[in-house]
């Protein structure tokens, strides 16, 4: 790949991160860069896993384009860690409970499909990453420890045992401070990863000495060959040192861990990797998302209602800012992704988020003629409970479109039906027009009926939408929505457009009404307004307060 140093000036965070990695690689004289993401396989992959791998992938891609050098992404599973508690979302909890404390790869698989619980979750992780097309290398902590890949680094940590302890001790309470060691021996009889004091560190022998707290028996255990597991922060540092990791990002909750692991990495004799801290996700109420609380949005739930690229787009924007992750963000993220996709096709700008989402390539499938928001509104007013019913109205706007000729549109139609059914329709209650509003709605019916033939003679899509919008404005240029503009001409207050959606849909706002009516069809739009006029008005009702708007 040819280097493009001009990409250093691109105002996009993946290039800013990539420039830091490029400087590190140049200083070290390396020909490749190692990017790492970590995974704790005591649970199943989740939306945060996707976010970390996706974001790291974008930095790796930016690095390769910028430097012309190869970047490797290592997805590292910490599967030698001991199981401390039984997860709530797995079967056969009693089976796992018998093996608490053992490495995840030394515990039977409660699902009955793999040789261990760790192997099962590793397979789930790989299938998860493969489903999104990520380019990565998988690494198992168990394999690396047992094969000797970490032996030299572990022996080095044994040489620096007291220095490593001094990095961690100030962060611990008095009791833990008295017993802390970076090494956790694996019990030679039970297989439990022991959290015990190390009585002696013997660098000359490559061993540690410890005592079984129950039997009092004393053991001398080599730190090599998978006989020990390093404590979390020491393990992270040892991994960076052993593998030469150049870049790893992590969440805000690990800021202190990054600092301590970086200090240990320097004690071992290496410079820690370039790091980036990303913010955590919040729920709809602004509370931190917790897997145990179940107050977040799962990746399966997102993908039930929108394409994976929309989730990637959500992950791309401002990773250093906390984001509310709930169902309401899905439509906006989807439409913003589609907007950037269209811009990318017009101009392949590396600052465009979709440039990164699509690996620097321009998508070659046709752009959908309707936004996701428009499809949602169309599914709502049409009460479309199946994709086939929604397609009937979509073809009013885009004649000849099919799921085969417009594959992305076909996916969006299915997503829109599902989202409208589950989240929009149950909460909508269209109101009756007030007595003051009725003349405007009646005028809209009269104008559409008078101009129906003229509108339908125009090409479908935007031409019809623009012509209908003229009638929408004309209908609103009367009390209570008429508004005098700065040039003295009669305009329309924003309250008219709010009223349209409140009365006809049950929502406070929506897309440009002319586009919605063009897709719904003039006869169906007339029928919709007439049904609203047939509802009795609340005598005490009043028109919504007019807001300033331009005609």
TrEMBL record:
Its EC number is 6.1.1.6. InterPro entries: aa-tRNA-synth_I_codon-bd_sub2 (IPR020751), aa-tRNA-synth_I_CS (IPR001412), aa_tRNA-synth_I_cd-bd_sf (IPR008925), Lys-tRNA-ligase (IPR002904), Rossmann-like_a/b/a_fold (IPR014729). The keyword Transmembrane does not apply. GO terms for cellular component: cytoplasm. ATP binds at residue 291. The keyword Protein biosynthesis applies. It is found in: Cytoplasm. A motif ('KMSKS' region) lies at residues 288-292. SUPFAM superfamilies: An anticodon-binding domain of class I aminoacyl-tRNA synthetases (SSF48163), Nucleotidylyl transferase (SSF52374). It is an enzyme of class 6 (ligase). Pfam families: tRNA-synt_1f. Its main location: cytoplasm. PANTHER family: LYSINE--TRNA LIGASE. Belongs to the class-I aminoacyl-tRNA synthetase family. HAMAP family: Lys_tRNA_synth_class1 (MF_00177). This is Lysine--tRNA ligase. It comes from Teichococcus aestuarii. The gene is lysS.
